[in-house]
Amino acid sequence: MNCPCGTNKTYETCCGPFISGEAFPSTAEALMRSRYTAFTRKDIDYIGKTLASESRADYDAKASKKWADEAQWKGLKILKVEKGLATDKKGTVEFVATYAQDGKTVDHHEVSQFRKTE
After folding, report:
1. Which helix (H) or strand (E) holds 18?
2. How far apart are CA 83 and CA 8, in angstroms?
3. Structure pTM?
4. How many CB atoms lie within 10 A of CB 44?
5. Distance CA 6, CA 8 (A)
6. What is the C-alpha to C-alpha distance for residues 35 and 45, in angstroms, rounded to an integer?
7. Tens digits of per-residue pLDDT, 67-76?
């Protein structure tokens, strides 16, 4: 089965090792893809763990779980990546995550900033 993040890799060779904690994403795009995959798998703990420290205080895990449970995840498109390579400390990923909820299809378009921390 292909990974939900849209690569042609299996879950076990793509996002699985990141979500299980066996490995860490080396690029901003890999982190973004793994976060999308975590939503599709309803792994809200991974979402919380991969938030920037300043975003954790107001993170609502219960609401995120509800959203993940109710959404039917349709796909992820990476539109643009700036920096965020393995050697970069910061990067930006522009993406569209498509899902259906309450009979409507939604294209969630976002530009996310990522940074590496210890």
Report:
1. helix 16-20
2. 23
3. 0.93
4. 21
5. 7
6. 10
7. 999 999 999 9
AA letter at 105: T
Q: Of 77, 73, 78, which is closest to residue 105 (Cα–Cα)?
A: 73
Closest CA to 19 of 32, 35, 3: 35
DSSP state of 52: -
Q: What is the pLDDT of residues 35-73, one digit of tens each?
A: 999 999 999 999 999 998 888 888 999 999 999 999 999
Rounded Cα distance, 41 and 80, in Å: 24
**Which residue do the tokens 């449970």 mark?**
69
What tokens were used for 27? 């690029």
